[in-house]
Amino acid sequence: MNIERTRRWGFILLFAGFLIGIPGILMLVAHVRYEATVRIKIMPQPDNGSYDPYFIQTEFEVIKSDVILGKVIDTLHLDDAWGKRYNYGKTIPKAEAIGLLRQCLDLRPVRNTGLVDIGVISEDPEEAAKMANTIAESYIDYREAERVKNLSPTDKLTTYDLPDLILETARQPTSSIGADNPTGKILLGTGLFLILAGVRLLWRAYFAAPGPVA
Question: What are the Cα distances from residue 165, in Å, to 43, 62, 94, 120, 150?
Fold first, then answer.
């Protein structure tokens, strides 16, 4: 009787483990993310020669601004693409698309240099690379336009220079940075625990039993 009970509970735990674990796996797979990074060089515009300790932080705010990100949305038609993916096929408002893109950004200064890494996270590796490169291009275009606007006509013809550069374009990532879904991880962990417990009971019932039950 004890062996039969052990077998029964073994199958119950095994079934429950798969029932709980499989949705966890699906959640994690559905939320696998990729990060693409483009590296740019930015230089302070020649002003009065004074050092601005907040220069990089200020430029980060420019990169995250509606002006830059809005241009990226328009260039890549992300409001349409994300509408198909997240909004039942309906184009999402541009302001909402900008907010989503801003959440995907990971801006990192390279210590003691004028270099900045612009990382963009997406569920689609190709999309991540396109967004990172387009953000960098939009920012460089913005900086160029601002610099030209602040120069005199003579300067524009003789001394205008663009020190901001894209040093390393973003490539399509081939490996993910992992899934960010706590619920999926909990379900998968619980499912694995139950499966192991069920296998242990079945092993005991079928292989560790002293003999067949009459």
Answer: 9, 16, 28, 18, 19
197 lies in the same domain as 144: no
Alpha helices in 45-124 (DSSP H): 55-63, 66-76, 78-86, 94-104
Separation between Cα atoms, residue 171 and residue 133, nearest integer Å: 9
Give CA–CA dist 91/74, Å, rounded: 12
The domain total for the chain is: 2
Rounded Cα gap, residues 8 and 198, in angstroms? 9
Q: How far is it, in rounded angstroms, from Cα 196 to Cα 204? A: 12
Q: Which pLDDT does position 111 carry in this prediction?
A: 85
**Residue 17 lies in domain:** 1-31+179-214
Cross-strand partners of 105: 120
Q: Is 156 helix (H, G, I), strand (E, B) or coil?
A: helix
- Claim to verify: residue 140 and residue 72 sit in the same structural domain: yes
Residues 168 and 212 in one domain: no
157 plus 185 within the same structural domain: no
Q: Kind and range of the H or E element at 16?
A: helix 2-30
Q: Name the residue with higher pLDDT: 148 or 172.
A: 172
Rounded Cα distance between 178 and 121, Å, is: 11
Do 107 and 202 reside in the same domain of the chain? no
For residues 112 and 101, membership in a common domain is answered with yes
Q: Taking the model in full, what pTM does it have?
A: 0.68
- By C-alpha distance, which of 137, 141, 135, 139 is closest to 121? 135
